[in-house]
Fold this protein.
Amino acid sequence: MVGDVYGAGQEERKKMEQNRITIETRKEGRPIGDLFGIFFEDLNHAADGGLYAEMVQNRSFEFGEIDNPSYHPLTAWEKVERDGKAEAAVWEGDAVSARNPHYLHMDIQKPGADVGIRNLGFGKGMCFRLGKKYLFSCYARSVGGAESSIRVTLRDGEDVCLAEGKWTAKGQWEKYTAVLEIVDRGGASGAGEMGSALTWRRLWQS
């Protein structure tokens, strides 16, 4: 998590708390020419997957070769077909927003124990903490006239479900949200479309 990767230890925090910076706004200093503002460059996921609380990589299916030759709209996403079969593709047009024209279209052709798509997160994956809460949100709709069930799960490295949320999607784009709390825990069919996001609620109170 962001707090773990970039947070300081207890001894470091004590030292930081003892430091003070005094800014004298009425005292003029030496001119600094055209140097102003701050500089921050998003290298190696220092922002996305780092300072930013978003945990889903490529949440709007907008990745492309212009950013990285290896990128494509389904970068960081992969199908899950446990005892079933599904087709997934990124479509364009009739989206929620013209600013994010791409979205995932998924057709579950054969229901199974777990059939859908999962996000790999940034780096080595997503870090979930016992007792912590995570805010999930997505826009989704069902196509073909029938309603479709949506189930989102947070899973550990051994594919054990740690938290889940469920909804029923209808024919129009709607926003679905859930606060997923990590607890200790030892088939849907239809076609639908979605775009998603997952943030650490402790950092972002949305």
User: Anything to note?
Assistant: The first helix runs from residue 2 to 6. The chain has three helices and nine strands. The radius of gyration is 21 Å.
